[in-house]
Amino acid sequence: MTYFLFRRTVGFIFTLFTVSVVVFTVMNILPGDPALTILGLEASDDAIEALRNKLGLNEPVLQRYFSWILNALQGDFGQSHSFGVSVSGLISERLSMTVALAVSGMVLTIIIALTLGIGAAANHRKFGDWGVMFFSQLGIAIPAFWLSILLVILFAVKLRWLPPGGFPGWDDPILAIKSLILPTVALALVQSAVLARVTRSSALEVMRLDYIRTAKASGFSRKRILWRHVLPNALVPIVTIVGMQFAAVVTGTIVIENVFYLPGLGRLIFQSIANRDLPTVQALVMMFAVIVVTANFIVDLLYVIIDPRLKERN
Amino acid sequence: MIELHFSLFNYFWGVLFMNFNIIRSLSFATLFTAIGVLLTPSISVAKSNIVIGLQQEPTSLDPTSDATASIDGMLSHNVYESLTTVSEAGEVLPALAESWTISEDKLTYVFNLASGVKYHDGSAFDSADVIFAFNRAMAEDSVNPTKKIFKVIESVSAPNANTIEIKLKKQNAFFLFNMAKGDASIVAEETAASNNTNPVGTGPFKFSSWKRGDRLVLVKNQDHREASSVALERVEFRFISDAAAASAAMLSEEIDAFPGFPAPEMLPQFQADPRFRVNIGSTEGEVILAMNNAKAPFNDIRVRRAISHAIDRNEIIDGAMYGKAVPIGSFYPPHGAAYVDLTQAYPHDTDKAKKMFEDAGVAGMEMTLRLPPFPYAMRSGEIIQAQLAEAGINAKVEQVEWGFWISEVYKKKAYDMTIIAHTSPNDMGNFARGPKYFYGYDDPKFSDLWSRIKTEADPEKRKMMLEEGQRYLTDQAVHGFLFQLPLLGIFKNEVKGYWSSAPVLFHPLKGVSVN
To answer: What is the predicted ipTM?
Structure first.
């Protein structure tokens, strides 16, 4: 276990280092100049030069990279080029909304997918199964942004139950939750389609095994068989997909935040790339990398809990 | 076995529906009443509030250090003020300068400043603030995006606290107009550095809050000298970049006005809806198919003229703008006083264009068309590609993002053709900017004409020269001149007094009301 943790930590640091180098390189190779995007078409050359000096863009690339990494290690992610305020401030004011969206999206995904997946498996080759398979196929085919527009047209424009977008902040928790309902549903419906199919096939596989037959023969109740014997043994592939989907949900917020004009990190990264705002992009990509790597790490830990046999193999 | 599966399924659905029933019976009614109550205040509270949708969100709130158009759109002449301002018709009006006199030689301007003006932080405004603002914009290390409008200034001085005297190096017909721009906002020394997040000005509205990525709020400045004629108490700007989302926000009446609506194809829906008023106004944006005149084959006038014959403006306007734009034949807005209709100078004629391409030896040639990420450019680009193909030219479309466009196309001139709207007023001078400018067009004859236009004080003579300039640019077929960028606005019927055209980047909200 110690060796396992050590190996993961080294991998973690290596991943973050690679990500930081890649982002820095790409942002520097990419044609475009933050000073130009800020000052626009009519700017004179001396104004652009003055701004480049002010932003520190005239320093050598390597020096900029190392000063960035030294500061980042001390928790200082620098000033945003285009916003002119600290990057940590920019991120922290938006973090809570994106986290709320991603987590609620993931939870709803799991609830929908497990319910439908197990329901379909329990009703194999019957109407309910076909229904679930049909709708999950639809869910895989429909892009999240299109589904979002349909949801907005129905629930915001026609029925007026929910706002079409925007986020008023947490000061009014009811309004805040209301404005996150549609984005969460849009995010979860599409994601749960894949997970429902995995759940169904994984559960079907387990149901075919001898010990389930034995359990049935022993006269256990259907409920008990499903919850105590089928689901736990079907979990390993489900958890793998959940881990992968968490990354997809986090990146999926970028699209969803644009359609629902939510002030989250996804929109921030979008805007910052367009503005060539390197410090902000760098910090955000690093943060997304940390989230994804952490999610994978948690999945690995969960394997051992779900299936103790895997521990011995390690 | 079958039975088992069936009832398991029932069990799951049972659980699902049971929950549903609980929710329905217990709280559906209360929930929706609650939602209704929550929603009502935001809709029906005092009518002097307005919610305005904007597509572009700025990253800074300081127009004197960032060129983003939406900074001017929201804040210039609302929060910040300049010495002069501009009416919807484009005429220069007093602002912080109540009046002015111009010397006989048109080189010395004396501005009489409005008295009793206060900044929103309570500090008094006087000539020292004007001196500071001008020195800041003109300084060596100034990052003012339109620094060049100050280049003509020789000196700025303050004979007393209410007077400013500006001496020019040479006559400039656009000086007073330029001084109305957001770039020439009179900012105070104490607050200039923090204006990017907390703008402080002297205007009829005070900055209240900015939630980045979501909204910006202004409130009425009760101390403003014209406060009695300002109807709005609170102005909220919401940032919605996606066209479908903008449309949904309008339809669900979350917002009252969308002055720069991004999607012309959605307008019929609003035109048919009695709740809304659709306005199709004009801007100063000439949309051109720019050609790199410094590069072969575009340095050949025959090729440029052939391209002008090959493109069909009406088809482009119908396809790209859904018919909602006015064609242009040169580089001057159709609503301008000196406009000459030159749209028939190169009538659309594919066969003629084909022959001209053959004569010039470029038939079948491959050219790139690099398009910035604006709907008008991307849609026009595809149609132009097809039209050029009919005339025997193989145009390759490359869609690039803005950061790429501005650095590669605009600064490094790494392009054959591109499509762009020039949104500044009085920008015919672009053609006199010489080989360094991205047109790659260097013509002493036009440069000479423009320097005469710039210094001509007699409006009648200037008008004649502007007409001559339009004809000359069309004759030289410097670019493909396409159409004037329209300003598509959607407003709830209650919203009154909004400018229907955009002669400048800013939109004063002083005269806007909701009733």
So the answer is: 0.88
